[in-house]
Amino acid sequence: ANVILFVHRGNAAVAARTEGIYDTFANYPDINVLYEGLVTLSVEEASKNMEDLLMTYDNIDAAIGICDNTPIGCVAAIKAQGREGIKLYSIDGSKDIMPYIKSGDIVMTAAQDFTKMGEESCKALYAALDEGATDYNVEILCEAPVVDSSNVDEWIDKFENAQYTFIK
User: Fold this and answer.
1) Nearest to 17 by CA among 101, 100, 111, 98
2) For the whole model, what pTM was predicted?
């Protein structure tokens, strides 16, 4: 497969995402990275970047973005140029990407489960307080569930019916 990557290594979280992609690609020697560029948070800029890449490469099989706005922007460029068969993938799990997964324009996203992330962070905080720690540094890893056509409706419902209760 010929792949376009939209990544960056600007902070630990996104650097880990980028390294995870390359670690996975190492197991698949048939994957050819045509282009690696910086991710953008702007849907419009991502669309323009993909438009340029579509004019440069006629053999793109897939594009991966480490945030949802990038593949969302890619959808518009792909449709505008009448290209088909380019699979789009993401890492984020934002509310904005769900309609694109539902329509089939984007294959999947790996979702950040913010509730679980908060829960695990609080558990670590309470453990540190219980231990009387004054200098506490811990890495907390949470599973990133895949959102695709098989479960996108559940995630749409989760976003539409989210209620958060704050306590003191």
Assistant:
1) 111
2) 0.85
